[in-house]
Amino acid sequence: MDHPRNLSSAQRLQWFGQTDRGHVRANNEDSFLALQFNAEEIYYLGKIGEAPTGSTDFVFAVSDGMGGAKAGELASRITVDKITHLLPRSFRQSAMGLETGFEDVFTELFDQVHRALAFLGSSDEEVHGMQATLSLCWFAPGWMYFGHIGDSRIYYLPASGSEIKQLSHDDTYVGWLFRTGQINEREARNHPQRSALQKALGGGNQFVDPQVGAVAYEPGDMFLLCTDGLVDGLFDSQLLEMLRRPDAREIAATPAQRLVSASLERSGRDNTTALIIEVQ
Questions:
Q1: Of 112, 134, 162, 196, whose CB has the highest number of CB atoms within 10 Å?
Q2: H or E element: which one contains 30?
Q3: Residue 83: enclosing H or E segment and its boundaries?
Q4: End-to-end distance of the chain based on CA atoms, in angstroms?
Q5: What mean pLDDT is reported for the chain?
Q6: Gap between the Cα atoms of 23 and 219, Å rounded
């Protein structure tokens, strides 16, 4: 793992969140979360804001619940709520240098969320089989650590502004076909099995094996967390263009509003959520 490129305490994070139930679904089964915390205190952040890094850590997450009726909505809410109770315990480890232990932190976190959803889904018939995706970014000084399961996504836009990288792997057969070069992005988006998950939290899944990773960040970097509803309407190239080079009509909206509105115009078949974090 490379050393952080810039550990200046003057760095700031700016974030923007937006969610919409879309044109088809009666309720919104997506949830997103923004937190600032240290070893003693935790602060819920609004959907728009900015703050310096240094003495506190930040967590941003999106979750897409599944299960029908109100089960999906409850599943995603439980998922993000568990984060607020479990992750701050690890702040001391972060302060000592998280590079050697973030995999263990995420493994425990994802496992406990999974157990909570599986228990409730097996004991309450109204939410039987409830499941959720989870894509999470933890910002400590100089590093962004991420954990992921499901088909929500985490994107990284380096400061150069010329590319967009999907850090997370879609836990679907179609995602595997795309990663191995057997189908292209357009074919993946239109594939009839694109939403068939191979891994998720809760439900009948016996084992939880989240994808984990880390990125050393610098000013100008940007990160996007989103549910699959957003990319149902937008290709990666369109995400890059709208985040880095918005036109005059789009500039008045926040980056998250910009993406969600554009996705709804093109699709809107699913709940649609975007959460953008910019390093300043």
A1: 134
A2: strand 30-37
A3: helix 71-86
A4: 23
A5: 88
A6: 37
pTM, two decimal places: 0.91
Two structure tokens written together for 20: 């919409």
Q: How far apart are alpha carbons 75 and 129 in whole angstroms?
A: 10
**Cα–Cα dist 62/152, whole Å:** 7
Interacting residues of 183 by C-beta distance below 8 A, sequence separation 6+: 174, 177, 191
Helix (H) or strand (E) holding 109: helix 102-123
Q: Which residues contact 254 (CB under 8 A, 6 or more apart)?
A: 16, 18, 48
pLDDT tens string 170-219: 999 999 999 999 999 989 988 888 878 999 999 888 778 999 999 999 99
Q: Which two tokens stand for residue 228?
A: 């699959």
Q: Give every CB contact of residue 81 below 8 A, 6+ residues apart in sequence.
A: none
Q: What is the count of structural domains for the chain? A: 1
Residue with tokens 């992005």: 185
Helix axes 71-86, 102-123, angle to 10 degrees: 140
The verdict on residue 131 lying in a domain is: yes
Total Cβ atoms within 10 A of residue 40: 7
Q: How far is CA 95 from each of CA 38, 61, 87, 224, rounded to the nearest angstrom?
A: 9, 21, 13, 25
Q: What's phi and psi for 175, nearest 5 deg? A: -60, -40
Q: Residue 226: what pLDDT?
A: 98
For residue 58, what are the β-bridge partners? 36, 139
pLDDT at residue 6 above 50? Answer: no
Map tokens 């299960």 to a residue. Answer: 67
CA distances from residue 75 to 11, 27, 35, 125, 216 in whole angstroms, order as listed: 34, 13, 19, 14, 31
Q: Is residue 143 part of a domain?
A: yes
In-domain check, residue 117: yes
In a domain, 4, yes or no: no
The CATH number covering residue 75 comes to 3.60.40.10
Q: Are 79 and 31 spatial neighbours (Cβ–Cβ below 8 Å)?
A: yes
Instruction: Print the domain residue range for 134.
Output: 12-279
